[in-house]
Design a protein that fits this description.
This protein is α/β, with parallel strands linked by helices. The protein has 15 helices and 15 strands.
Length: about 450
């Protein structure tokens, strides 16, 4: 076994790189998609390209470009064309995938390009016949990036609704339930537009538990939610009280429009978490994957994380030090202040307060897409010394937390994690590293 690495920062960086490499979109697509002559194998199914006049690629999300490049490479000369929509800055530096158009649009709040891209894809799907095959690529961010308002709602209405839900602390499941019933694209509506064409959907999941109907609001998936569910969510958070919303119902399980649809999840949060855990073990750490279903208010989840770290440090429980605890999921933030930050930065700040004066402990919280909330950081990194360092610089960590102002706080400390757009998106990851009991050196 390799001797445990004492530099916990170097370990955290290694875990991050291993996790992201395991869910590189092009690589995971190629694990589930291959071609032999005219036969294309998608998961456990095969498609004879000789039976189709046209093969299109469409989709959206933060990983759309890398996924599309891999599919275009596999399809080769049989690719007719298509379009994918991604977030601004996520197109990469290279040319668009061969034969495809790429449009950048707004996220997490949609903009005009979100509507233009969704409309172009909807028009293509509507023209497709039973002699056509559509490969749809879905990844996190697709809900905002592919926006087609129902009659009676404008883009400005959707922007207002989205912003209000994001600020309320609503979960991604709740947010996307509302989005589905405000859209002529989401909640299975793209499948309805594409029928009777063949439709294959490759999904890179960014939602806890990988529910297909929630990821990017499930444009090719039957929707189990209803307009009453959507209205109930707005009522719960007192959003648009007394203001009618022209929700429209979505196609449900058993609808004939899904007869020619096949879905394959190509990558998920668990894949990334398992890869990070294996990296930690190779570096000599006791490793434990706690869960990939973590949800809840970021600052409350932080207290649980700190408690686990203390248990390892003091009692070697649930695993002995040097230890690495890994979990994945997606927390939420109820915005009460006027500061700037993201859910991972807020979690890290709350954890720093809970870990104050605990030596040999480090926590890294990051968004796998490289952007945590409305910031250019993926998250933040803290230790038992973070609070003392902050106060020595005249910073007030508790005041920053109360104001939801974690981004400038960590910026002044130099503890922001900046990866840039990673090209993938599989929720958030948290790494808890605990050094040997004898090793109280600064981390």
């Amino acid at each position: 076994m390799v001797n445990p690495v004492r530099d916990l920062y170097a370990v955290a960086v290694a875990l991050q790189r291993s996790a992201l490499a395991a869910v590189e979109p092009g690589a995971v697509v190629r694990q589930h998609l291959r071609r032999q002559g005219d036969l294309v194998y998608v998961g456990d199914r095969s498609y004879d390209l000789g039976e189709y006049e046209h093969v299109y690629v469409v989709g959206g999300g933060k990983a759309a470009v890398s996924m599309a490049a891999a599919v275009a490479d596999v399809l080769g000369d049989r690719l007719t064309g298509g379009m994918v929509v991604t977030k601004y800055g996520h197109m990469g530096s290279g040319p668009p995938p061969s034969g495809l158009k790429v449009l950048e649009a707004g996220h997490p709040v949609p903009d005009g390009n979100s509507v233009r891209g969704a409309q172009a894809i909807a028009d293509l799907a509507r023209r497709a016949t039973e002699r056509d095959l559509i490969v749809c690529l879905i990844s996190g961010g697709g809900s905002a990036l592919l926006t087609l308002p129902v009659p009676g709602l404008g883009l400005d209405d959707l922007q207002e609704l989205t912003d209000a839900l994001l600020r309320s602390g609503a979960t991604i499941n709740e947010l996307n339930t509302v989005r589905k019933h405000c859209s002529s694209f989401k909640g299975g509506n793209l499948a309805r537009l594409a029928a009777p064409a063949g439709l294959v959907t490759l999904v890179l999941s960014d939602v806890v538990g990988d529910p297909l109907d929630v990821i990017a609001s499930g444009p090719t998936v039957p929707d189990p939610t209803t307009t009453a569910d959507a209205q109930g969510i707005l009522d719960r958070y007192s959003i648009w009280a007394g203001r009618p919303v022209p929700f429209q119902e979505t196609p449900k399980p058993g609808d004939a429009v899904f007869e020619q649809v096949h879905h394959v999840i190509v990558g998920s949060n668990r894949q990334a978490a398992v890869a990070a855990l294996e990296c930690a073990r190779q570096l000599g750490f006791s490793g434990l994957l706690l869960s990939t279903y973590v949800e809840g208010e970021a600052r409350e989840v932080a207290r649980v994380a700190a408690a686990l770290a203390k248990g390892v440090r003091r009692h070697g429980d649930p695993v002995p030090a040097p230890a690495c605890l890994v979990w994945g999921g997606e927390t939420t933030v109820t915005i009460r202040g006027d500061g700037k930050g993201g859910r991972n930065q807020e979690l890290a700040l709350a954890a720093a307060l809970a870990l104050e004066d605990w030596p040999g402990v480090m926590l890294m919280a990051l968004a796998t897409d490289g952007t945590d909330g409305p910031t250019d950081a993926a998250g933040a990194l803290v230790t038992g010394e973070t609070v003392a360092r902050a106060r020595s610089l005249g910073l007030d960590p508790l005041a920053a937390l109360m104001a939801n102002d974690s981004y400038p706080f960590f910026g002044k400390l130099g503890d922001l994690i900046r990866t840039g757009p990673t090209g993938t998106n599989v929720n958030d990851l948290l790494f808890l590293l605990v050094a040997d009991e004898q090793d109280d050196s600064p981390v």
